[in-house]
Amino acid sequence: MEKAMEKSHGMSFAEYERTLANRMKVEKKRELDYAKSKEILTTVKSHLHR
Known about the structure:
The chain has 50 residues and is mainly α.
């Protein structure tokens, strides 16, 4: 989990936990990644059902 956190967000889990600003930055990025994934999935599904 530590390596994934470091690779994805550029900080250790300890740094993530340390400040609210770090947590908010990571959670905002996760939210944007999720929205992008949903958009891609919708596009792929629409192409499959033509």
